[in-house]
Structures are given as C-alpha cells and as structure tokens.
Amino acid sequence: MSVKPTIKCNCGQRIISKDVMQTGYYLRLFGPSFVYVKFRCSRCKKLGEQFIKQEDWEDGILKDIPSEVDQAERRKLDVLGPISIHEQIAFHFGLDNTDLLEKLTRQAELQVSGVEDSKDAER
Ligand SMILES: [Zn+2]
Predict the structure, then answer these.
(1) What is the pLDDT of residues 84-121, one digit of tens each?
(2) Could you give the CA distance from residue 28 to residue 3 in angstroms, rounded to a whole number?
(3) Structural domain of residue 104, as residue ranges?
(4) In angstroms, what is the span from residue 10 Cα to ligand 1's centroid?
C-alpha cells in the first residue's frame, strides 16, 4: 500500500526507539489524533520532536531495520570507498596468480577462527 512511516531527524537520520526520550498522545475531538515523539538524534545529537498521525503510527515505526552489515563494518566500507578500476585490474591480474586461492583459503581460515574468538570474548 503506502510507504511505511518512519521518524526522521532534520539531518536525515532515522529515529529508532533508543533515541526516543518521550512519547505522548494527543487526543482531539475533531480531526485526527496524534502521537507525539521527542527524541535526541543519534547522529547530530540534536533534540527534535514530531507529531505523527495516529493512523500512521504502527509498532514497527521505531524499529531499527536489520542490516547484514553492522556499524563497524559499515564504517570500514565507508572509509574504503567504492571499488576503483585500478583495484579491479589488480584483482583481474591477481586471478592469474595460481597460489592466490591457497593463500586466500589460508587467510579465510585464519579470519574465521579470529572472528569466532572475538565473538566468544563478547559473550
Ligand atoms: Zn540528526
């Protein structure tokens, strides 16, 4: 039907439940009732408030959209930037290197065991 409503800060950051400081309910005799949300933006740290029509309010409105990349990973990707043509060329010629696969496999094994170690540490 329609696009799911979301709450956004002036800077464009989506507001989710952990950013919300206060919610209220504005009942009106005439016209639509509103849900009032006061928040502090997680990106620009500014306070903001918004009224959402009751009919637009739904349980998922403050839920974070699950993403396959976590925040740390996203920051890393942002720093790396888009894949350049030079990187693609280097990768292309890298494929001619026959022990590359073996090297990658060994590296991946190391990384996998490293990731599992750090996960255990978090728990
Ligand atoms: Zn903001």
Answers:
(1) 888 888 888 887 777 777 877 887 787 776 655 555 55
(2) 25
(3) 71-122
(4) 6
